What does this fold into?
Amino acid sequence: MNDFIAARSQMALSLGFHIIFSCIGMVMPFFMAVAHYYYLKTNNIVYKNITKAWSKGVAIFFATGAVSGTVLSFELGLLWPRFMEHAGPIFGMPFSLEGTAFFIEAIALGFFLYGWDRFNKWFHWFTGVIVGVSGLASGILVVAANAWMNSPAGFDFVDGQYLNVDPVKAMFNDAWFSQALHMCIAAFAATGFAVAGVHALMIVRRQNVYFHTKSFTIAAVFGCAAALLQPLSGDISAKDVAKRQPAKLAAMEAHFHTEKSAGLVIGGIPDEKNKTVDYGIKIPGLLSFMAHGDFSKEVTGLDQIKPEDHPPVAITHYAFQVMVGLGMAMMAISFLYFLALWKMKKWLQSDWLLKLFVAATPLGFIAVEAGWTVTEVGRQPWIIYNVMRTADAVTPMPGIGYSFYLFTAMYVSLGIIVTFMLYRQIKMVGKLYDLPTGAKH
It folds into this structure.
C-alpha cells in the first residue's frame, strides 16, 4: 500500500467510524429529553426508566465519539499537513466553535447524569436538552467545515497565495446549509430507525414489552418523520450540487453525455470506457428536473469535464444508488407506520410491522456512510474543490501504511468494546427497569 492510498484509507476509516457516533450523539439526547418530559408531565415511572436507560447509552456514545473525534483532529495535521497549512486559518473557526460546543455538551451531560434528585426537576430536564442542542451544533459546525472543502469561500486565491481571509464567510459558504440540513435529517432518521429496531426486537421477543413499546414509539416517530422529510433536503442538495459541482452530479448519475431533458438512471453498471450505463432504468427528463427544476433543462455530463478532473464514477454512482435506495425503503416503512398510527391501529400489535423495523435497524447508518462516500469521493481529485488537489495535500512522511494497520486494529477493538457494552446494557434493561407492582401506567 503506497503512502497516498494509506493516508486516504486511514482518513476514510476514521471518518466512517466517527460519523456513526456523531449521528447518535446528535440525536439520542433529544429522545432522552422527550422521555424525561413525559415522565415529568405524567409521573409514569416507565418514562423515567427509559430516560435513565438511554442516558447510559448517550454516555457510552459520547465517550466513544470523543475518542474517535480526537483521533480525527490529529489526523488532519499528521496526514494532510499541506492542506492544513493553507486551509487551517481559513476554515478553523467552525472547528474552534465545535470545541466550545463539545465542552458545553460534556458539562451538560455531567449535570444530567448526576443531577437526579439533586436539581430542580425542570432544570435537570433542561440540562438534557442542552446536551442535544450542543451536540447538534457540533455536528452542524463540522459539516460547515466539510462544506467549505466542497465550496471554498472566504479568501482570494492569487498566484498560489491565500489572501484576504474572511473566516465567517468561509464558515457560511454556499454549501453549508444544504449539507447541514441533509446531514441533520439523516442523523435523526438513522438513529431513530436503529433505536426503534432494537426495541422492536425486544418486543417481538416479548421481553419487558411495556418498557420497550414506549421506547419504540418515541424513536420510531422521530426516525419516520425524518425519513419522510429527507427527500426535501435531498432535492435542495441535488440542485446545489448541480450548480456548484457538476462533475460530482455527473458521477452520481453516471451521466456521461451533456444533454437536455436528461434522464435519471436507477441502478445500472457504469462502463467508463464506453461511456454508457448497462442494465440501468432511465426515467426521461427527471435528472433535468432534479438538477434545475425544469424537465427540459440541459445537464452537464462528464464529456464537458476534463478527464483528469473526473471523480471515480463507479464508486460515486454505486454509493449514491445505495443511499437513495435505502432512503426509499425507510420512507416506505415510515409511511406504513404513520398509517398504522392514524388508521390501522391493529398493525401496531402485529409482529410483521415490528419485524420490518428490526430488519431496517442498520439501513439508516449504511445510507449515511454511502452519503458521505458520495460527498467525499465525488469531490475528487480535489481536497479543496478547484483549488488544491488531494495528491498535493498528503503528508510526505513515509511509512503511513503501518499507522493505517494500527488505527484499523484500534477501531476494530473499540467497536467490539462498544458493541459489548451496548449489548450488556440492553440485556440489563429487562432486569433493572421492570415496573414495580402498582406502578402507574
Summary: The two ends are 60 Å apart (CA to CA). Confidence is low (pLDDT under 50) at residues 435-441. Residues 3-238+307-432 form one domain. The chain has one domain: 3-238+307-432.
